[in-house]
Write a structure and sequence with these properties.
Elements: E1 2-8, E2 12-15, E3 22-24, H1 51-60, E4 64-67, E5 91-93, E6 98-100, H2 106-116, E7 119-124, H3 131-142, H4 148-155, E8 166-169, H5 184-201, E9 206-210, H6 222-231, E10 237-244, H7 251-255, H8 257-279, E11 286-294, H9 299-306, H10 325-340, E12 345-351, E13 360-362, E14 368-370, H11 374-383, E15 387-389, E16 392-394, E17 397-400, E18 403-407, E19 409-416, E20 421-428, E21 435-442, E22 448-455, E23 475-476, E24 481-483, E25 486-491, E26 495-502
Parallel strand pairs: 1-21, 3-4, 3-12, 4-7, 7-8, 8-9, 9-10, 10-11, 11-12
Antiparallel strand pairs: 1-16, 2-15, 5-6, 13-14, 15-19, 17-18, 19-20, 20-26, 21-25, 22-23, 22-26, 24-25
Bound molecules: alpha-L-arabinofuranose.
Length: 503
């Protein structure tokens, strides 16, 4: 199979917001406890945070981490997680039918973010609580001192405010599974009132209102329209979520879920435009895709626990998807979509970061390792920063269950002007044929290949485990060349590649 593409310096999509490579950590399963926090672990620091996990996170250069939920936040009292640990209450978490020790709260999370070099993105509880909780939490986190909540923060050991800019107005409020679920108008009013109160404290906050939990929700896309009609001028982002699944093991169909993602983004972007026009607003609202990942491998085994038949365990292993090589291709396609939609998607969070549907896995008292999907996420986060190129791609296509005209060769391109590099992320969705790709580099100085990484595996179901951590990992590619302003590279069947060109 042959494919070609044109990258022209003058044809760009947008500056990619670094925060599109964000992540998410929820008080769920072993994400926090035994994930980032395990005071008895041999690598734990003075705060009880695992050093091996922190290193894997640091290597990813994650720009922002959303916290503390997720469904968990809809019945969470943030005040339970402050003050002396031994005095913090154990609470029942209704979302995941577990017990919450509250040994990790805002102080511990903030310290961990500083350790790994990331920003916080905090969610307020608009399920069981509302405006009052949101304004108090904001005051605790961002006010310098001299008020009840800020002085309490100082008393609890943190003098400087954290100055968190990004705030989520609840989580998945369209979902009937949510504590305090609301209809769109009800939620829209509450979100607008909460946003108003938060902006009375600080106009410069960046606020995120809940969009749909997925593109199959019965209320989608009316939900977006109604919620935005109530909140448009008070918020900066609308949040979307999507999880990708392949229980039938139909790779070709599975991989067309990227087309469905693209349509989802397109539809919500059009809704944003419509509401903006209707309101004659000068303000812009963007998409914050703050939960995305493959999620299905663990669903069967979780049914027992999530049915509530196991009591209220603390930090049980939940949503522990073990990712395979096929998922590398899906995650590569998702990240390519975000790069191509960088004009409207400004923030995105892989869900989640550790143990719970995550690129990083841990064993209690044992190792931490990179799952298969760690690598495409790593490459995009490290090398996918700059300006997204509007590539003209000519590739054979196929029709799948989730979208038609899916290009077998999927490519995104990024121009990093500061570093004088072009980076291309390529996925071959063909299961049996090589793809010979020729990419014309127009308007750029003559270049040469400086890095070429390839991920292939004879077994789509191959995984990385505690005992075999390197079964699926990138290797240096060979044979990518730039001759006469044309980059040539061959993609083996079902493969992911990154090629970087110095210009
Ligand atoms: O990430 C797991 C869960 O998926 C989150 O708690 C929720 O927001 C979504 O349904």
């Amino acid at each position: 199979m042959k494919a070609s593409a044109v990258a022209n310096k003058e044809f760009t999509i947008a500056k990619i917001d670094d925060r599109v490579y964000g992540a998410f950590l929820e008080h769920l399963g072993r994400a926090i406890y035994e994930g980032i926090y395990e005071p008895d672990h041999p690598t734990a620091d003075e705060n009880g945070m695992r050093g091996d996990v922190a290193k894997l996170v640091k290597d990813l250069n994650v720009p922002v981490v959303r916290y503390p939920g997720g469904n968990f936040v809809s019945a969470y009292n943030w005040e339970d997680g402050i003050g002396p640990r031994e005095e913090r209450p154990v609470r029942l978490d209704l979302a995941w039918h577990t017990s919450e020790s509250n040994h990790v709260g805002i102080h511990e999370f903030a310290d961990w973010c500083a350790t790994v070099g990331t920003e916080m993105m905090l969610a307020v509880n608009l399920g069981s609580r509302g405006v009052d909780e949101a304004r108090n939490f904001l005051e605790y986190v961002n006010h310098p001192g001299g008020s009840y909540w800020s002085d309490l923060r100082i008393k609890n050991g943190r003098k400087e405010p954290w100055n968190v800019k990004l705030w989520c107005l609840g989580n998945e409020m369209d979902g009937p599974w949510q504590v305090g679920h609301k209809d769109a108008a009800e939620y829209g009013k509450l979100a607008a009132n909460t946003a108003r109160a938060m902006r009375m404290f600080d106009k410069s906050l960046e606020l995120i209102v809940c969009g749909s939990s997925n593109a199959d929700m019965p209320s989608y896309p009316d939900w977006e329209r109604i919620v935005l009609e109530h909140t448009y001028d008070h918020v900066d982002f609308i949040s979307l979520h999507m999880y990708f699944f392949n229980p039938e093991k139909e790779t070709a169909n599975f991989l067309t879920m990227a087309e469905k993602l693209d349509t989802y983004i397109e539809t919500v972007a059009a809704t944003i435009k419509q509401v903006k026009a209707k309101k004659r607003s000068k303000h812009d609202v963007y998409i914050c895709f703050d939960e995305w990942n493959v999620w299905y491998h663990s669903k069967e085994q979780d049914k027992k626990l999530l049915g509530g038949n196991s009591g209220w365990p603390h930090a049980p292993g939940l949503l522990e998807d073990v990712y395979n090589f096929e998922d590398v291709l899906m995650v590569g396609l998702i990240l390519n979509t975000f790069i191509r939609r960088s004009d409207v998607v400004k923030i995105a969070c892989i869900a989640q970061l550790v143990n719970v549907i995550a690129p990083i896995m841990t064993e209690k008292g044992g190792p931490a390792w990179a799952q298969t999907i760690y690598y495409p996420y790593y490459f995009a986060s490290i090398f996918g920063r700059g300006t997204a190129l509007d590539l003209k791609v000519d590739s054979p296509t196929y029709d799948g269950r989730y979208g038609d005209n899916a290009a077998y060769v999927d490519i995104s391109g990024v121009h990093d002007e500061e570093g004088s590099t072009l980076t291309f992320f390529l996925v071959n969705r063909h299961g049996t044929e090589n793809a010979d790709v020729e990419l014309s580099l127009q308007g750029f100085a003559t270049g040469s290949v400086i890095d070429h990484q390839v991920m292939t595996h004879p077994n789509l179901e191959a995984t990385n485990t505690a005992k075999n951590q390197d079964e699926v990992k990138p290797r240096k590619g060979e044979g990518a060349t730039v001759v006469d302003g044309k980059l040539s590279v061959t993609l083996p069947p079902y493969s992911y590649q990154m090629v970087r060109v110095k210009i």
